[in-house]
Amino acid sequence: MAIAKAERLMNLALCLLGTRRPLSKAELRASIEAYIEAAAAAAAAAASGASAAPAAGESANDDAFNRMFERDKDDLRELGLIIETVEGLDGEIGYLARRDSNRLPAITLDVEEAAALGLAAKVWQQARLAGAASGALQKLRAAGMPLAEDPSDGLSALETRIPAHEAAFEPLMLAARDRRPVVFDYRKANAARPEQRRVEPWALECWRGHWYLAGWDRDRQAERVFRLSRITGKVRSRALAFTAPVPDHVTVRTTVEKWAGEKATGTARIKVRAGHGYPLRARALATHELGDGWDELEIPYGHGLDAWLVEFGPDVIVLEPAELRADVIDRLRAVAKG
Fold first, then answer.
1. Which residues are registered as beta bridge partners of 211?
2. What DSSP state is assigned to residue 154?
3. How many angstroms separate the CA atoms of 134 and 130, rounded?
4. Fewer beta carbons within 10 Å, N or C terminal of the chain?
5. d(CA 99, CA 236)
6. How far apart are CA 57 and CA 62, in angstroms?
7. 219-265 tens-digit pLDDT
8. Strand extents, DSSP E, the chain
9. pLDDT for 156-191, tens place per residue?
């Protein structure tokens, strides 16, 4: 029903914008397919009723169309379309929407703003923002806004993108926007089974190819950061108010860096299988070839590095320090039991 109404409103708006003279209700009724189908359905229903007289059926059809048309006209006006009502010489009422009255004002953006919009449209490739970004960009182009795009951009081998493959991304984004608490099952890196978390979502941020949610954990009464790929099952939103104030600036990346070993306190030695572990190689302070398809890396060591190393599975072996090796083994055992 929502799609049918949207199509009907779109067709009505196009008719009113495309005409050079006012169109009467009868003309609009005969021009828009949704009105024709509604009249045919009403006529069939009236014909199937044994006690319904033809004149009464026609009157009911007219009344139903008039109510539908008035609702559609009011909806278009609420959406911002300026519809004029004109009385003809014969006293018949007509309607039209003049293009000059409904044209958007000139849009002016500086070079930095235009570049930011062009980049944003390319960044979002998944989720609900993809259609919104590309649609907004098309409207700005139609308004004559130059985006100063590189003509060779289509041939570029590299393109900025923010993937959002996790099913939890969209419901969390909407919940954070609408300030609605959520409930989901979350499996920590060192846990065999997920546990339920009740969170007031604040912000989403992408770091090293992974999405993270920052928010207020109601059960722990503290700020927490959750990696979306570890959320299992559906995200359920709740029609409740937030219990904790939302900070003006949410430092998702800083928190994730702290827990992912970015704040190094020492150096770790690890073995990495040749041709694997490129993110680790990018952070390596030194690299040594060991032969037999393995390399030795010296990388910064900080809190949470064990959780990151576990993600590389059998392609990474920790040599030292001993406590890091033990933590990685414990995490792998927990995953194996799960």
1. 206
2. G
3. 6
4. N
5. 44
6. 9
7. 999 888 898 988 998 999 888 889 988 888 777 777 666 655 455 67
8. 23-24, 84-87, 93-96, 182-186, 195-207, 210-217, 222-227, 231-237, 266-273, 286-291, 294-301, 316-320
9. 444 555 566 788 888 998 898 888 999 999 987 666
Question: Any long-range contacts for 313-319 (C-beta under 8 Å, 24+ apart)?
Answer: 314/273, 315/272, 315/273, 315/276, 315/277, 316/270, 316/271, 316/272, 316/273, 316/276, 316/277, 316/280, 317/270, 317/271, 318/268, 318/269, 318/270, 318/271, 319/268, 319/269, 319/270, 319/271
Residue 231 main-chain phi, psi, to 5 deg: -85, 125
DSSP state letters, 107-120: ----HHHHHHHHHH
Q: Give me the mean pLDDT over the 100-110 stretch.
A: 73
Kindly state the tokens that stand for 100: 């000059």
Q: How many CB atoms lie within 10 A of CB 71?
A: 12
pTM attached to this predicted model = 0.44
Residue 1: pLDDT band (50, 70, 90) is very low
What is the CA 83 to chain-centroid distance, rounded?
33
Which among 197, 172, 170 has a CA at the least distance from the CA of 183? 197
Give pLDDT, residue 253.
72
Token output for 144? 């004559």
Contact 305, 268 (CB under 8 A): yes
Least confident piece of the model among 80-84, 169-173, 261-265, 275-279: 261-265
Query: Of 2, 29, 3, 21, nearest to 12 (Cα)?
Result: 29
Question: Is the model more confident about 220 or about 119?
Answer: 220
Helix (H) or strand (E) holding 27: helix 25-31
Q: Tokens in use for 265? A: 């306190």
